[in-house]
Write a structure and sequence with these properties.
The structure holds two protein chains of two kinds.
Chain A lengths: L5 H9 L4 H10 L6 H26 L3 H20 L2 H5 L9 H15 L3 H11 L4 H13 L3 H4 L20 H14 L2 H13 L7 H13 L3 H12 L5 H7 L7 H11 L8 E2 L4 H11 L4 H13 L3 H13 L8 H13 L4 H7 L3 H12 L10 H7 L1
Helix pairs in contact in A: 1-6, 3-4, 6-7, 6-8, 7-8, 8-10, 10-11, 11-12, 12-13, 13-14, 16-17, 17-18, 18-19
Chain B lengths: L1 H17 L8 E2 L6 E2 L6 E2 L8 E3 L4 E9 L5 E6 L1 E2 L3 H10 L4 E10 L2 E4 L3 E5 L8 E7 L10 E6 L5 E6 L7 E8 L2 E10 L4 E6 L2 E6 L1 E2 L4 E8 L5 E14 L6 E14 L4 E3 L9 E8 L5 E8 L13 E8 L4 E10 L7 E7 L5 E7 L12 E6 L5 E3 L9 E6 L5 E6 L8 E6 L10 E2 L5 H7 L3 E8 L7 H10 L6 E2 L2
The chains are: A mainly alpha, B mainly beta.
């Protein structure tokens, strides 16, 4: 598990750092202490650091006005380089609509996801005690990677899968920055690339290192080595990403783990070309499933989106088409609960009940639920969500 | 005194570290030097900025370069990259007009000095006939934009300055900057966004036209000036953008409808013709012939988009235009029937001397920038014959192009380097109709510049002098939303 402060990791992944900036480490980073303490820290550090040139200047016996000018230059340099840097200007918690403390907690989830610690993501979400779209988004994404999306769908709020989000000029920065993770996870390299480029477009000087890394990954997966190398070379100039860049350079320096990872991602790629006019995630997911029916992450996102929209008929159609007809054996209680609603609502035959409901206790529990519909005892079930939320 | 000596030693040591030293025990190699950009065997105009270059090789840590012309004139450079003095470079080119200059590169690789085979650069006898180039530089963010703009670059050195950046007007996007035959006294560009407008500058006076006109079903885009300067041809497009699921081409742009029109800058009237405004066909990308008597354009039957986007095949056509009456002709000639070859024509650009017309040929559609198969073709307007410009094409996309005023040079965009970001290349046409090997727009530190940039260059054009544009005044006017209305000529 990552150690506090999380914004350290987050900024490290997102922002282009030169080695000089890294020397100043936390001072450059976003000030968790808030604006008042930030000012106090600024003055104290200024006094401490400013003392050194002051002493030097005294020994050089410069005139007092020259000393004042130099100190003013020094102050403005510190101010513009660190406190008013493009980073601090562009990545403030309010853009996430969060307080400083909640911002830190949110980043604890996002960063655990970034480093692939999916179990830690789930654990952190339950520990932080706050709810927002970013936390939910990464909670669901980590769950999907662990094959637990249907199991965890109803456990938190808000229920933000990301599948109903679109990227445009009015989209919140937080959403723009995270959408590439969804597309990359489900295997849609076209939209992962687009989302990462959009994220860059909304970053200072069109540079966001985390997104350049994603762009390199996308192009490696889709086999566009020329484009991938453009980004890898860029990343190799950053001390944060240098090692990553070496490990991902096509050729003898690419590690076996990376090679296998890329190969596994390639299995999810679309294999028939069409034109998409927007970022309608349903279209994206169904096309991915047509190309690769065993893409479980895409399948879970499709079915769970249907369920969050409470469109049971659509869910049933998708379930039949992408789940049953392709002989997937995995059974999830959430899907069983939704199917029960459909079967009960359509006066299904016994044969249909036995075809769809393979967990007998679900049927029994549904009968119990119907005796006290909306009861808090069934809060974790889809029936409660369907009726009450 | 003692302290001064110490300072002197420090300075000398510092200077010494900046030098690569004199080559010794030099090993000759028959291979060409691995330079970036590839300037080996290119043809350049007198007055072009120095062709500074890097060496891209493992273990490389310095080079010494000598460039020799006739009469023993020689310039040299040494260091991590070849950087030539601007004045001495210009002198060298001026003294070698129409001749070859020879470049000798000696590089230290893995601690040993290697002298590669000499290569030549031909200094063209044809002048560039341009002060610089203008282009749009934009991050490939598909449909939203942060910082982008139209820039001008002095071709004799490395100076670049913005003509208009979208940061001047929040949330805007600028495109399609077009001057009249490289003369920036008259130019037009389109501003998209909340404060959209078509900006037309005529002899220092800038007029903002209403971006959309209800009677023409959309905005006026893809402009091209009539040589007399009174008229400007536009297309009006209902454009949609789609994303390829299998990603070779990435983005596709198609039109639900498009027509062509001519704008009369004197009367603010729009001139239409039913022949080039048909509902069942898309007419697009109009350009005037150098004598102003014809309008070249592309046309394709309208299909059901995006379902049949691959069936959209444009042919190259022309229609007469009378500059006296401002009327279209009544007959459309097909000059290049690309559809019969299963292809599509886009971005036609006639040379100003009336001899040639270069266009881009792609598999379908007209928005070629993401089409890897996009290649330039040239049509001899005197004989009607066409051929693929294989001497300048690459396996990546070549898209927009413009001619210099003397019709001897072209500037064009290509994604040949990484398939993702377009860059500008220049090439010259000889009397035999063949183009010379294109060279990448020179930069002071080419590798550092191009490798680090995350911007694409597009819609390039030559400009015979610097563009004089009052950005502040126009930005203020753009925000007021005061616009000149256009009316359709009855």
């Amino acid at each position: 598990m990552l150690s506090y402060p999380y914004h350290y990791y987050w900024q490290e992944q997102n922002v282009l750092f030169s080695d000089v900036y890294r020397l100043f480490g936390h001072f450059y980073y976003y000030q968790y202490a808030g604006p008042i303490l930030q000012c106090v820290a600024f003055v104290v550090i200024l006094l401490v650091i400013g003392h050194i040139p002051y002493l030097v200047l005294r020994r050089m016996r410069l005139r007092r006005c020259a000393i004042v000018v130099l100190i003013l230059v020094f102050i403005s340099d510190i101010y513009y380089t660190y406190l008013h840097s493009p980073f601090n200007h562009n990545y403030k918690p309010y853009q996430y609509g969060l307080s400083h403390r909640d911002f830190e907690k949110t980043l604890s989830v996002e960063m655990e996801y970034y480093f692939g610690n999916y179990h830690n993501v789930l654990q952190n979400v339950h520990n932080v005690g706050i709810q927002n779209v970013v936390i939910s988004f990464y909670y669901y994404l980590a769950s999907a990677h662990l094959g637990l999306l249907p199991d965890n769908l109803l456990k938190i709020s808000p229920k933000e899968l990301g599948t109903l989000q679109t990227i445009g000029e009015d989209t919140a920065l937080a959403i723009i920055n995270m959408m590439n993770d969804l597309y990359y996870s489900v295997g849609d390299m076209t939209y992962a690339e687009r989302a990462a480029m959009m994220s860059c477009v909304f970053s200072p000087n069109n540079i966001n290192m985390k997104m350049l890394k994603r762009l390199a990954e996308v192009n490696l997966v889709s086999g566009d080595t020329l484009a991938a190398m453009k980004y890898i070379r860029y990343l190799s100039k950053s001390s944060i990403y240098r090692e990553w860049a070496v490990e991902h350079t096509p050729g003898h320096t690419m590690s076996e783990r990376v090679r296998m990872d890329i190969e596994s991602k390639r299995r999810y790629l679309n294999n028939s070309d069409t034109l998409r006019l927007g970022d309608n995630c349903r279209v994206i997911l169904t096309e991915l499933l047509k190309s690769n029916p065993r893409n479980e992450i895409a399948l879970d996102y499709l079915l769970c989106t249907d369920l969050l929209l409470k469109d049971i008929e659509l869910f049933k159609r998708d379930y039949d088409k992408y789940y049953l007809e392709r002989g997937l054996e995995r059974q999830k209680e959430l899907y069983q609960q939704a199917l029960v609603i459909y079967l009960a609502g359509t006066d299904a035959t016994e044969e249909q009940w036995s075809k769809y409901i393979t967990m007998p206790y679900v049927k029994k529990r549904f009968a119990e639920y119907n005796k006290c519909r909306g009861s808090q005892d069934f809060k974790e079930t889809y029936w409660y969500y369907f009726d009450k939320e | 005194m003692k302290r001064s000596c110490i300072y002197l030693v420090v300075v000398v040591l510092f200077l010494l570290t900046a030098c690569v030293g004199k080559p010794y025990n030099v090993v000759k190699e028959s291979a060409m030097p691995p330079i970036y950009p590839d300037y080996i065997g290119v043809t350049i105009p007198v007055g072009i900025a120095p062709l500074n270059f890097n060496i891209i090789a493992d273990g490389f840590d310095g080079m010494v370069v000598h460039v020799r012309g006739k009469n023993g004139v020689e310039i040299s450079a040494e260091g991590e990259y070849a950087q030539f003095g601007i004045d001495e470079w210009h002198n060298l080119l001026a003294q070698n007009k129409g001749e070859d200059i020879t470049v000798t590169v000696t590089a230290r690789v893995d601690g040993r000095w290697v002298q590669y085979s000499d290569f030549t650069i031909h200094v063209s006898q044809y002048p560039l006939d341009a002060w610089g180039v203008t282009y749009r530089r934009i991050a490939p963010g598909y449909e939203v934009y942060s910082k982008m703009g139209i820039y001008q670059r002095d071709l004799s050195n490395f100076d670049e300055s913005p003509i208009f950046e979208n940061t001047s007007v929040t949330g805007s996007c600028v495109n399609c900057h077009t001057s009249n035959r490289t003369n920036p006294d008259q130019f037009v560009f389109h501003v998209r966004g909340e404060h959209g407008a078509t900006a037309i500058q005529n002899d220092g006076r800038c007029e903002l036209l209403k971006a959309k006109n209800d009677s023409i079903n959309g905005a006026m885009v893809y402009p091209y000036w009539h040589p007399m300067g009174r008229y400007c041809a536009f297309s009006t497009n209902q454009t949609r953008q789609g994303f390829h699921v299998v990603r070779d081409e990435r983005v596709e742009v198609f039109d639900l409808s498009s027509d062509i029109l001519v704008y009369d800058a004197e009367s603010n009237e729009i001139i239409l013709s039913p022949i080039v405004s048909k509902r069942e066909t898309s007419e697009n990308l109009p350009v005037f012939s150098p004598d102003g008597e014809w309008i070249y354009f592309i046309t394709s039957p309208q299909h059901d988009y995006p379902l049949h986007f691959r069936d959209e095949k444009y042919d190259l056509c022309r229609i007469a235009f009378s500059s006296e009456t401002g009327e279209f002709g009544i007959v459309v000639d097909t000059l290049f029937k690309a559809s019969s070859r299963g292809k599509s024509v886009t971005w036609p650009r006639p040379s100003y001397d009336g001899k040639y017309l270069v266009f881009t040929l792609i598999d379908y559609g007209y928005f070629s920038i993401w089409h890897k198969e996009a290649d330039f073709w040239i049509m001899n307007l005197e004989t009607g014959e066409s051929r693929c410009l294989s001497e300048i094409n690459s396996i990546q996309s070549e898209s927009s192009l413009n001619w210099s005023n003397n019709s001897r040079w072209i500037v064009f965009t290509s994604r040949r380097e990484n398939g993702l970001y377009t860059q500008l290349y220049l090439s010259s046409i000889g009397d035999d109709g063949l183009f010379t090997k294109p060279f990448l727009l020179p930069q002071e530190k080419p590798w550092e510049y191009y490798d680090a940039t995350l911007y694409s260059f597009n819609t390039p054009d030559f400009t015979c002098k610097p563009v004089d544009f009052d950005v502040k005044r126009v930005s203020r006017e753009l925000v007021t939303d005061r616009r000149v209305n256009t009316v359709v000529r009855k």
